[in-house]
Amino acid sequence: MLTRRPRVPRLRGPVHRPQAAEPRRPVPRDRSRRPAAEQIGAVVERLAVLIGAGVSPTAAWAYVTEGAHDRMLLTVAHRIERGAAVADAIVSSTGDLPRAAPKRADRSADPWLVLAAAWSVATEAGAPLARCLGEIADSLRAVGRVERETAASLAGPAATTRLVAVLPVISLASGWLLGLDTGTALLGSPAGLACLALGLLLMAAGRFWSGALLRRARRVDPAPGLMLDLVAVAVAGGGALPRAKNLVGETMHRFGLDTERDAAAVESVLVLASRSGAPPGELLRAEAARVRRDSVSRATEKAAALGTWLMLPLGVCVLPAFLLLAVAPVLIGVLSATGLAA
Q1: Please, what is the Cα angle at 325 between 320 and 330, to 5 degrees?
Q2: What's the rounded Cα separation, in Å, for the pair 71 and 201?
Q3: CATH assignment of 36-143?
Q4: Count of other CB atoms within 10 angstroms of residue 43
Q5: CB neighbour class for 159 (10 Å; exposed up to 12, middle 13-18, buried from 19)
Q6: Stated pTM of the model
Q7: How far apart are the two ends of the chain, measured CA to CA in Å?
Q8: Which end of the chain has fewer CB atoms surrounding its CB within 10 Å, N or C?
Q9: Distance (Å, rounded) from C-alpha 310 to C-alpha 307?
């Protein structure tokens, strides 16, 4: 006789799961083409809405990771779940945090460090976390917009550079299809070897030159107005202006962010606020918005000017290399075929 197994009632509500050492399973790569700052800005905006609705920060991080595939986001949320402070969890997940504030601004390019600094400042200053996260989300989205517009402006010049770089190969293949022994012409005579060596050298120089121009045009301000935003966050906590400024400086120094870029703007805004009696937080946020607009304008101007600057490596290196690698072998092959060349 069969006996029925006792029925186990289902528990309603959150179920406690045992904690694992690190994220539970392999995470598929995030193939989104959105800039990193824009992706993190979307996450921060969700956190701001959840925390503003009364959800605890730990639970908010757990909610935003549901269905996420970003390894960094899952790692940060897992360490927060294990009891780490939010800023410490972000920094430990990013890895190589510098011991001293660097002079270069490339560390600011990591939007996660921007979020860690903003969270730390808001927590220590006692500022409203939801509002501060909303402002940081706006800032990160602005940075992502700068990167997106710059990439769109540079798509045409970059494609032109790649196309011109393969023209010699196409020409050599065309000569071979037409029955001209261009390969032998390049490799079988002193003149061909000289054309090959000089042409490859010019192609390498043109590619390096064009790549340097593209990299310089893509180099946008990674966090425009960051210090202004962070001081506004610290001021929202109700502390004195000198204390807010010192807190932001120490936090940015600790996280390896550039403390010199916006220092003069912060000083001028705070002087204006003290002389006029206007709210310093509003003045700081307005100045940060202006800095971001200027950053967008500069990036757009650099991208527009790149099309002209790319004419230099094209005319000085790529076109002569095309003549040496594509046209000269054809001429040598024709001369060899007619018996007019040794």
Answers
A1: 115
A2: 42
A3: 1.20.81
A4: 23
A5: exposed
A6: 0.65
A7: 103
A8: N
A9: 5
